[in-house]
Design brief:
- 2 copies of one chain form a homodimer.
- With 217 residues, chain A is mainly alpha-helical.
- Helix content of chain A is 71%, strand content 0%.
- The first copy, chain A, has 12 helices and no strands.
- The longest helix of chain A is centred in the N-terminal third of the chain and has 26 residues, at 58-83.
- Mean pLDDT of chain A is 84; it is low at 212-217.
- At the A-B interface, helix 10 and helix 11 of A face helix 10 and helix 11 of B.
- The first copy, chain A, binds a DNA duplex (30 and 30 nucleotides) through helix 2, helix 3 and helix 4.
Amino acid sequence: MAAESEARLRTDARRNRDQIIAAAKVAFTEFGPDVPMEEIARRAGVGVGTLYRRFPDREALIRAVARDNFGAVVADARAVLAEEHSAWQALVRLLGRSRSLRLTIQLAVLSEGARAAVKDDPITQRYRDELMAMLEEIVRRAQREGSLRADVGAGDVAVLVSLLLRRVPVDSEVLAESMLDRALVLILDGLRADPGSPLPGRPVTTRDLTDQATRSP
Amino acid sequence: MAAESEARLRTDARRNRDQIIAAAKVAFTEFGPDVPMEEIARRAGVGVGTLYRRFPDREALIRAVARDNFGAVVADARAVLAEEHSAWQALVRLLGRSRSLRLTIQLAVLSEGARAAVKDDPITQRYRDELMAMLEEIVRRAQREGSLRADVGAGDVAVLVSLLLRRVPVDSEVLAESMLDRALVLILDGLRADPGSPLPGRPVTTRDLTDQATRSP
DNA sequence: AGCGAAGTGGAGACTCGTCGTCCACTTAGG
DNA sequence: CCTAAGTGGACGACGAGTCTCCACTTCGCT
């Protein structure tokens, strides 16, 4: 349905639509999913009218961005998984903080509103499930190959990444980037296989994370 | 001056003032420093009028809360530093995610607005400097005793803690708590002394963090 | 126990930022 | 060259939050 109406777009309209999504990606990453619609329109070089014509409300836009972005991340992850034979290396590459992964987490995990908007979109849902499955697969393989500590679950990894990928309010972009690069390495070292300290509780699974909305017993 | 006017308060007024600060602490921790003034008043069991009479605007309230809270954290840290002879243990205890430490970071590091409000308050400033100095001291001692990896600075530690202490939007409080407990241990393991991976760049100092506002060259 | 100064609460006026519509105008493309 | 498709941005509506104002209550002194 959406695909149908999109396909029939006049070429200039199609171009504008793409620009809007691209602009929204950047704006969402930068300011979060509450950024004013007008800001997005401005960055896309279109009027708000055009934006609203294409996406009747913020939710629709968020959904479109989420699809686009989740798709990219899934493709990325698949590629990494295929190329890298060391599961640990795959994990490291996956967690390398990329723009799109950051936005994905922003939309899917943090931010109440965006989560709600995305929750019921079947396409995004499929992507998310696939992503989680891949993460679990990597964690399992890395543990089997002995590079990842055995007492963590994929959820633990996800929690750490989501902590790391949140927007940091530091003025200097460069400084922030390098700080986070270091933090990532430190965190990865904490995940390395060798006792270190015993972890409290039981491993966090991906289910633990996704169930958060359903308030299961 | 502030102290003078506070001292002259009628006992009931003084009580209300204390309740307001207590309520604000909780509300700030829970919703961030933008929580509506009315919400704070409600929790304190007073009217907004009373709130505004005591604190002419949000900034004034934030300043008062910051003083109160920083003071507590500093006292805490001092106690830990005195009791614990292992610097590593001191570090572990310090980073144990306490309510007040969380609020402190919230106000002093995250949140544009609060940072601005607090920046020029000399009392808070002194507390902050003292806290930073203590952290540096601990890091130095822990490195000398060989428990903390040598290639990190106090700033690295601060960055990790601030990552960890941000509000996590998970419905189940209990689950969130236990997840973060695990994340903390994982992060601490990454800080442990033993090679692991080489860190990129140079150690982040506390100066790197505090200079963020002044955009130095 | 009476009195004035100190303190209170909350209704509502006001501000501000954002949304989303509407329509006169422009443009793609047959 | 014509028209259906598309555009932009001014503008009214609106919700959330701030802060004032003042009739009323309470404290605590004598």
